[in-house]
Amino acid sequence: xxxxxxxxNLDAKGRLAIPAKLRHNLGENAIVTRGLDSxxxxxxxxxxxxxxxxxxxxxxxxxxxxxxxxxxxxxxxETDIDQQGRILIPDHLRxxxxxNKKVVIVGVNNRLEIWDENLWNEYRLKTERDVNEIAxxxxxxxx
Length: 143
Fold this sequence. Notes:
Blueprint: E1 2-9, E2 15-17, H1 20-26, E3 29-34, E4 40-44, H2 45-57, H3 63-74, E5 77-80, E6 86-88, H4 91-96, E7 102-109, E8 112-116, H5 117-137
Antiparallel strand pairs: 1-7, 2-6, 3-4, 3-5, 4-8, 7-8
């Protein structure tokens, strides 16, 4: 399980150290893609395979299905974790998520999210403020 919040710096080449606690669950390589809410998603290979199966089950005749599949897959890259425990985040993904030097890595069960630190702080504060309303909306899902 991937959980926790970790503050790190991107280096000048776009490399990001993955916390040691998370590397074991991530495996030797990972898939990095555009995420929702202006962050990046990082999937272990086995979780990526599950996502691909779900995307393949979407109806090809629906434009929203095609658009979401393209969104998730077109910018995705497979990256190895180097000897120092870092992954390389390509320029197009750094631009998408507005990543600057300071980033936050967030564990969200089956994936990691990489956020620009300022965007994460704004999102976190808003979510903390609205969490009671959010929880009420999720009651039908057994939360």
